[in-house]
Design the sequence.
């Protein structure tokens, strides 16, 4: 669209000419297919084209669309509050998605345990990726694939496994888990395996005459952010007076966009000024409470006391330290100390 807009204005296109050659991934090995099957959860459910409409309608029968606009100042404050308590550079979208998860956890009994993001790999350096290839270069990244942001190895301690096996419950921890999963999922080898498994699954279902139904789950939020793309830049010569619209929503599918300009009285247009619009399908029974929380602004203390949410963002590094301390206490507790024959204290394993 941007290229068409620039050509319409007799300008040189900003992007290089598109190509339509795409890499052909071989079928995955049995080992890779088994390992990556849980990483393509969105491709688990398929049906015939005739059944798709009814399946979608049934899944969203009690769901309404919730939309909200967040100003650039609100987004700045949110990012400052959340990223100020962790030791990594969280994006605004990381923090915004984590906040939406925290709000949902506050209003429903079953907390969100997984966040899946639709991520672009167009700029990843890999031999099978061409930056100007036509079409979407997307993969789905789940926090369950990279649950522990810190891997701890101590050579004198017994081996112990992941510190957490689900999404953290504090806002900063959720944002960090989202950020970590996205960064790790951009490895060339991971992408090769993921794309091979997903491509094979899609081709197999297409050969059966089936289409995919992206079903929703009570404990999963799907994020699909378009904030890095300025759709309104394809304005065909009318900057700040062109709006972009999209349609469709489903339960717990969070979409983010740069806001459209607003047409005010007197036929004047007000600039977007860095604001972001979000859209998400919310169960009817929860929508009013979600609206009330968003209308109060980012008041984290209002979210305390449900699912053990904390008032202030809790650093993942603090969680790691606590886990290390517990492991040390448990390990040291296995030993008693006795005075040896040479007057020195020695340790005795009491297991």
Sequence:
């Amino acid at each position: 669209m941007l290229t068409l807009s620039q050509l319409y204005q007799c300008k040189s296109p900003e992007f290089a000419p598109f190509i339509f050659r795409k890499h052909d991934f071989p079928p995955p090995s049995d080992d890779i297919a088994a390992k990556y099957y849980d990483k393509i959860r969105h491709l688990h459910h398929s049906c015939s084209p005739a059944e798709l409409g009814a399946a979608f309608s049934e899944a969203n029968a009690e769901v309404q669309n919730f939309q909200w606009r967040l100003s650039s100042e609100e987004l700045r404050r949110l990012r400052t509050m959340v990223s100020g308590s962790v030791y990594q550079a969280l994006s605004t979208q990381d923090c915004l998605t984590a906040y939406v998860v925290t709000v949902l956890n506050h209003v429903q009994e079953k907390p969100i345990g997984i966040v899946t993001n639709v991520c672009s790999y167009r700029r990843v350096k890999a031999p099978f990726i061409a930056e100007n290839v036509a079409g979407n270069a997307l993969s789905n990244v789940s926090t369950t694939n990279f649950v522990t942001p810190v891997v701890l190895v101590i050579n004198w301690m017994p081996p112990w496994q992941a510190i957490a096996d689900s999404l953290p419950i504090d806002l900063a921890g959720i944002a960090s888990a989202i950020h970590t999963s996205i960064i790790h999922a951009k490895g060339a080898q991971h992408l090769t395996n993921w794309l091979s498994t997903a491509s094979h699954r899609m081709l197999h279902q297409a050969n059966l005459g089936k289409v995919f139904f992206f079903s929703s789950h009570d404990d999963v939020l799907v994020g699909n952010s378009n904030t890095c793309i300025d759709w309104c830049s394809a304005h065909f010569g009318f900057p700040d007076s062109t709006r972009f619209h999209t349609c469709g929503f489903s339960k717990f599918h969070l979409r983010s966009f740069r806001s459209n300009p607003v047409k005010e009285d007197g036929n004047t247009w007000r600039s977007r000024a860095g604001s972001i619009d979000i859209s998400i399908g919310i169960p009817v029974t929860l929508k009013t409470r979600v609206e009330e929380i968003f209308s109060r602004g980012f008041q984290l203390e209002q979210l305390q006391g449900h699912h053990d949410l904390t008032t202030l963002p809790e650093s993942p590094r603090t969680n790691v330290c606590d886990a290390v301390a517990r492991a040390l206490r448990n390990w040291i507790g296995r030993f008693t100390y006795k005075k040896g024959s040479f007057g020195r204290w020695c340790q005795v394993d009491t297991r």
About this structure: The chain has a mean pLDDT of 80. DSSP finds nine helices and twelve strands in the chain.
